[in-house]
Amino acid sequence: MNKVGSNLLEAVSVISDGASVMIGGFGGSGAPIELIHALIDSGAKDLTVINNNAGNGHVGIAALIEQRRVARIICSFPRSADPRVFNELYLAGDIELEIVPQGTLAERIRAGGAGIPAFYTPTGVGTETAVGKEEAIFDGKRYLQERWLKADYALIKADLADTVGNLTYRRAARNFNPLMAMAAKTTIAQASNVVQAGEIDPDQVITPGIFVDTIVEVKSPKQEEVLNREGACYPC
Amino acid sequence: MNKVGSNLLEAVSVISDGASVMIGGFGGSGAPIELIHALIDSGAKDLTVINNNAGNGHVGIAALIEQRRVARIICSFPRSADPRVFNELYLAGDIELEIVPQGTLAERIRAGGAGIPAFYTPTGVGTETAVGKEEAIFDGKRYLQERWLKADYALIKADLADTVGNLTYRRAARNFNPLMAMAAKTTIAQASNVVQAGEIDPDQVITPGIFVDTIVEVKSPKQEEVLNREGACYPC
Amino acid sequence: MLEKIQELKLTNSQIAWRAAQDLFDGAYVNLGIGFPEMVAKYQPEGCEVVFHTENGVLGFGEAPAPGEEDWDIINAGKKAITLKPGCSIFHHADSFSMIRGGHLDVAILGAYEISQNGDLANWSTGKGGIPAVGGAMDLVNGVKTVAIVTDHITKKGGAKLVESCSLPLTGVGCVNRIYTSLAVIDIEDGKFVLKEKIPNISVEELQSLTGAQLHLGASVKDLVVPEGV
Amino acid sequence: MLEKIQELKLTNSQIAWRAAQDLFDGAYVNLGIGFPEMVAKYQPEGCEVVFHTENGVLGFGEAPAPGEEDWDIINAGKKAITLKPGCSIFHHADSFSMIRGGHLDVAILGAYEISQNGDLANWSTGKGGIPAVGGAMDLVNGVKTVAIVTDHITKKGGAKLVESCSLPLTGVGCVNRIYTSLAVIDIEDGKFVLKEKIPNISVEELQSLTGAQLHLGASVKDLVVPEGV
């Protein structure tokens, strides 16, 4: 078994129009910029994107939105330092937005990966986000029922990967990445270093290989924050 | 902040009669034998014990049961190589047993730690374990509603601990330990080595210190399997 | 006839061999405690299977040599195992997320009874005693393909493949395929469908040892195990 | 009167200082994006607080020097932070397990409006535009003590402490304590209870700037901030 793919474009070429795609990262930290840019190159459109945010500047998810590939976005916080790309399309009614509280978003994704079709959370009780959701009382306290969230694909950013798909993450770049790897039918990971099976201590694996389908090595991945400070855009 | 306690008996002396106690481990792997034996020494009784199993031989949980300290046990698999201690009390009606499917047990404990009062699982649908549980249908499939599981105390076994309570585990000794650390009001951990804060790489922490109240160093912890092969018992 | 069956029937090793032939390269597989563990010995040439154990290990290998055991590294049956390159360790909630979330390809389990609609009874003899379920109920409801390895009949000659189970269920409609000591039988649309049988037994004989109607697959192949297994 | 208030009221730094005085050694604390982050600067002597950020870091420290940023290490406001000894990293589901599971001691957040029964509105101005909730709804429903730092009144002089919120809610009955530019007010049994006020304002004046009845605590202390804050 060897899950290492030859290049980014080939890896994402399986993603067809209309697919749902979870994209790891919290802001720029842990965002798989190179995979997102390959997805732009692939031409896939009418995508549903699941991410904590809605992009920043003109690279990564913002670029994907700017290229009009995203029909719908599920996120907790579409505000950013430079959210113009999203805002314009949203206010023009050209992109659909589902706002999910951040912890509920994380837990719904985990539930999708863990085979839990629904769970109860106190988050959102009595707020606009409760509309249409079943409420239940446990031990005298109010809770909302939330459903799992799954996707056709996950694009994630890892630090180390081994050939059988085990992954580690660098610092807070971990965030949504391990959860999304579990919740997608097909998970495509970029990793800064690909090593042989056995080179990652089994105790230190964060995402076991069973959750990963394809790995592409991207030696020195770009950081969204740095690109935006440089005024970068994609494609340019 | 320094969470390092001076000795085992003092650490467990907070556990009062009638308390619920989650005990980490799967069989002997990851079982905090020294903490369990200290709990025997402490004299606490009428305990509810939550563990995957119901003890083996005459040490650890089996010894706690043999000393008649356990009124009730919640577990998935009370069978073992030498389950005589549990079996005799159970068949005599002197210990109460709640059988929970193993994955449901793990998920209920996680839910307890994660503030999820209830969730749905396909596990157990149409079986004896479904009796008294709400059934719901999602996307055409049947699921059972399961409730969170919390406890007053957790006794867990770690490999490394730092002074602020961050923990790592050795190999498959991890099992239920990180989950129980989250789900108890007070978590007491024994660790083979206690190091200074900063000596565990933040990426490699498995249980963040927020889930741990007291740490006791136990340099060369005993393995239940080895003790049982030696015919050990406690107290002897 | 029971005497003939005793002579003809496959041994547990042979049943395990047959079950192993359907594994595929890269499959993530969980083997039940006991008899199903034998399947690991018979992986087909060139087929590298990744074994999962409920207590939190993916990618483990054979048992260590006696005296070499590390009792922190065990399987669901509490037997010592070894870690192979590419192995990973995780906690119980993550382990059962793999199971319940549908990430494992195959679970191979034992059985007391299997009904024609795929109900499985394998955790309780229903006779009192000490109940113990472990991870069985999670496995049968989560893993993509649930296969059973079992003798075709009980020691007393009674049917294990039945119209409906009499023992407490492990799961409802969960079994996909049964490897018995006499046959390979799939469960399709609530029916037992015979796919393979050992050569020296007739369909009629097999039917007489089966507690529910056996339907014939498009072709019923001979179930032949190589010499030496 | 509004002019008098403009002169007397505490600055954001001073409000943050006051909020920080109630932190205790070893407390696990989450600070909201923006103004609440200032609380970190004013931890009392000998009080070591452990800061949590939703994106998966516990035990972080100050911002790095400009040019020293590591953009994999940021807080919920996407600002670069540093890791302190004893820090830990975890994924989002674990991070919100800490929040939702009641493991954090204190959350200090901003507010548009707070009602006397502790309802909080701090995520949406309700005016259209782009809604963005982030982790606020999880924090207010999970953390043991939810405290608010805020100006006592809006820029236009309107009340922020009200009988019932007019803006979309973040949470119901979730606020425990409010540190304003004029006072410290607890929410007890559905009432605003005045605990402290700045010296040069009368209870009557404070009441006139508050949109719901102010009840007096057993003693109303003077809220005095040290020079230089």
CATH topology of chain A: Glutaconate Coenzyme A-transferase
Rg of Cα set of chain A:
18 Å
Q: Trace the largest sheet of chain A across and list its strands.
A: 4-3-2-1-8-9-10
Do you know the CATH architecture of chain C? 3-Layer(aba) Sandwich
- Helix coverage percent of chain C: 10-25%
By DSSP (H or I, 4+ residues per run), the number of helices of chain C equals 5
Summarize the main sheet of chain C: 10 strands, mixed
Radius of gyration of chain C (Å)? 18 Å
Secondary structure class of chain A reads alpha/beta
Which regions of chain C have little confidence, pLDDT < 50, spanning 5+ residues?
none
Helices and strands of chain A, in order, run as: HEHEHEHEHEEEEHEEH
**Count of beta strands of chain C:** 13
**CATH 4th-level superfamily of chain C:** Glutaconate Coenzyme A-transferase
List keywords for this structure.
heterotetramer; A: 236 residues; alpha/beta; Glutaconate Coenzyme A-transferase; seven-stranded parallel beta sheet; three-stranded antiparallel beta sheet; 24% helix; globular; C: 229 residues; ten-stranded mixed beta sheet; three-stranded mixed beta sheet; 17% helix
Characterization of this structure:
The complex is a heterotetramer, with two copies of chain A (236 residues) and two copies of chain C (229 residues). Chain A has seven helices and ten strands. Chain A has a seven-stranded parallel sheet, sandwiched between helices. A three-stranded antiparallel sheet of chain A has the order 5-7-6. Chain A is an alpha/beta fold and 236 residues long. In chain A, helix 6 links the parallel strand 8 (151-162) and strand 9. Chain A has a single domain, classed as 3-Layer(aba) Sandwich (Glutaconate Coenzyme A-transferase). In chain C, the strands form two sheets. Chain C has a ten-stranded mixed sheet with strand order 4-3-2-1-5-8-10-11-12-13, with helices on both faces. In chain C, strands 7-6-9 form a three-stranded mixed sheet, with no helix packed on it. By secondary structure, chain C is of the alpha/beta class. Chain C has five helices and 13 strands. Chain C has a single domain (2-222), classed as Glutaconate Coenzyme A-transferase, CATH 3.40.1080. Chain C starts with a helix and ends in a 7-residue tail after the last strand. Chains in contact: A-B, A-C, A-D, B-C, B-D.
